[in-house]
Structure formats: C-alpha cells, structure tokens
Amino acid sequence: QVQLVESGGGLVQAGGSLRLSCAASGSIASINAMGWYRQAPGKQREWVVGITSGGSTNYADSVKGRFTISRDNAKNTVNLQLTSLKPEDTAAYYCNADLVRATMYGPREYTYWGQGTQVTVSS
C-alpha cells in the first residue's frame, strides 16, 4: 500500500540540468532516511545520495558539487537537483525510503523503492 513515484527524468545535453522528484504515498507513519541510487545498463546499482529525517546529507564523490538533495517532510517528497550533467551520469535513477508503517503487530520499518526514472545525458 506504499508507493514511491519518481518523475523528472529525460534527455539533456552535457552541462545541462534536471530536477528529479520522488513522492511517497500510502499508509506511512513516518519516513526516516530517503535517498537516490542509479544504475546504468550492465552496471551495478550505485548509491548516489542520502538524506536523513533531520536533513543531514551524504553524497557519492562522483556527484559532489553537482547534485543537491532536499526533502519536504510534510509532503513525503524528496528531490534531486542535477546540474553540470555528464554523459557518465546516464542511468536509471531510483528513489528509496526507509519508513515506518503501523501494522496490526505495531510499528514496523520497511524499505521501499520507486520504479525508476531515466536520465540520459548526450555528449
């Protein structure tokens, strides 16, 4: 009953910018950490950035200074601003969230993933 839906991907020229969004919906008690991963064809999934419920952020070295993550706790949304894009940034970008749901057994922690949004950077 929980969904993460990403949006904002597309085709952009090298040096350009995109803004990705991820909205969580459903029966959610609270969201702890949220983040973004990416996976290029034939490559392993790569962690990109994470943000805690308190707003602390961590970035992969490959995107530091170029990507910026933010979240809106009231809307259960996380955003990723991509700037100075490079062809090597081309990948499917996946949002994830560590969240708490209320169940008949009490509160439980779960990890959810979005379906991915494609970012393609042309040279």
Query: What is the overall silhouette?
Result: elongated
Broad structural category: mainly beta
- The portion of residues assigned to helices is under 10%
Secondary-structure element series:
EEEEEEEEEEE
Number of strands: 11
Largest sheet, if any? 7 strands, mixed
What amount of the residues lies in strands? Answer: over 45%
Give the N-terminus to C-terminus distance in angstroms: 40 Å
How many helical elements?
A: 0
Q: For the residues shown, what is the average pLDDT?
A: 96
Rg from alpha-carbon coordinates: 15 Å
Please supply descriptive tags for the structure shown above.
123 residues; mainly beta; 7-stranded mixed sheet; 61% strand; elongated
How are the SSEs ordered, and which strands pair?
Layout: E1 3-7, E2 10-13, E3 18-25, E4 30-39, E5 46-51, E6 57-59, E7 67-72, E8 77-82, E9 91-103, E10 106-113, E11 117-122
Question: Could you describe the 3D structure shown?
Answer:
The chain has 123 residues and is mainly beta. It has strands at residues 3-7, 10-13, 18-25, 30-39, 46-51, 57-59, 67-72, 77-82, 91-103, 106-113, 117-122. Strands 2, 4, 5, 6, 9, 10 and 11 form a 7-stranded mixed β-sheet that branches. Strands 1-3-8-7 form a 4-stranded antiparallel β-sheet, with no helix packed on it. It is elongated and about 50 Å long.
In summary, what is this structure?
With 123 residues, the protein is mainly β. Helices cover 0% and strands 61% of the residues. The relative contact order is 0.32.
